[in-house]
Amino acid sequence: MLKYIYPDGTHCYRAIHSAHAVFRNADGKLIARAEKADRSGMYEFEIKSFEILEPGVIYD
After folding, report:
1. For 53, which of 1, 2, 11, 60 could close a Cys bridge (C-beta 3.0–4.6 Å)?
2. What's the superkingdom here (predicted)?
């Protein structure tokens, strides 16, 4: 599971199999690319950071 942290401090979780890439764009912003929930393609969104969550570990 991945935890993406948005620039405004909010976050979301995505299944690791839906992640495609994390990269910096030409403006230097951190961008995540993931598969849409309906599997119709990819989309990109800006993030501040991300975390790979380990199975069996409780994050609080």
Report:
1. 1
2. Bacteria
